[in-house]
Design a protein that fits this description.
By secondary structure, the protein is mostly helical. It has four helices and no strands.
Length: about 120
């Protein structure tokens, strides 16, 4: 009976983490500029990966694998936000500007196009 309960809890964590990772991937495609894309990817995918790893911890039980999974979880929680911050800082230093909430769609599209063009011209 306890094994079934552990399986249910672990699969809830794994499935919810997978759903969050899919939502983060959709956010990468749908969001308008670099900064909002990083927000969608950095926060949602960190939580999604954390939930998946937590579900795997429940599946593994108390073994050496659990210790390794917890170390991976710790690594993900420290490196993912740090990497997102570094990319955002690099984009700001490169001259990209975040979109402001009061802009209409035409201004947002024009700003996003200017930011993308600035990014392409610096990499070529």
């Amino acid at each position: 009976m306890i094994d079934i309960l552990i399986d249910i809890v672990s699969w809830l964590f794994i499935v919810s983490g997978g759903v969050l990772c899919i939502i983060g991937g959709i956010g990468l495609i749908r969001l308008p500029d670099v900064f909002t894309r990083m927000h969608g990817a950095g926060i949602v995918d960190t939580l999604g990966a954390g939930l998946i790893l937590l579900g795997l911890v429940f599946q593994a039980g108390f073994t050496l694998v659990t210790g390794k999974l917890l170390l991976i979880l710790l690594f993900v929680f420290f490196t993912s936000p740090t990497a997102s911050h570094a990319v955002a800082r690099a984009a700001l230093n490169d001259g990209m500007t975040p979109l402001t909430p009061g802009q209409d769609d035409g201004e947002k599209i024009a700003d996003a196009a200017r930011n993308e063009e600035a990014l392409r011209s610096r990499t070529l």
